[in-house]
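[Structure tokenization] protein backbone as discrete codes

[Encoding] learned vocabulary of local backbone shapes

[Begin record] amino acids and matching fold tokens:

___
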Amino acid sequence: MIIGYPWENEDDAKLYELKEDISKADKKVREKDIRITFSFSHFVPSTFTPMEWEGVNLIDYNRELLHKNSRTIYRGVNFECWTLPFIRTPYAILEEVLIERGYEKDVDIIQNVIFNKKYTTLKANQKKEILLKYLSSYIFKRHNIGDELATNYIKRMYNNQNPARVLRNNYEKYMNEKGMNNE
């Protein structure tokens, strides 16, 4: 299930209707043991998709979907529904958008922020604050159709390899050549 589309709001993430539908089904099903697992992926604008020019929606779905540290959505007589434990946090979405939309001029910023040891040891909210403070203008920018998008640049630059892996490897190689660690 994909969540976090630009038009969604916090009410869309509260799962009230889903819980009500499951509860109704639970009352109709007899002598069955049904277990359902939901996997939620956050929307990230990607190239060559109809929504590649859209902005990012940063509703904290972890908080909304997994309230009270419980993965359980519904537990009844015949139904048990829960979410997988790895819903991505808002900072992880921001990092992915940076890599998806990073222009050539942004490669150094991305490497120096995302792959810095100090950054990687921060808590999720601290990472989110840093990314929003320094890079929010283009993370949330809604591009015009036909604009040269950053993703087109990064994917061409790395021949469609995983940009995050290539950036991390390049950064580590650079730091090793300089005899520096990335603290």
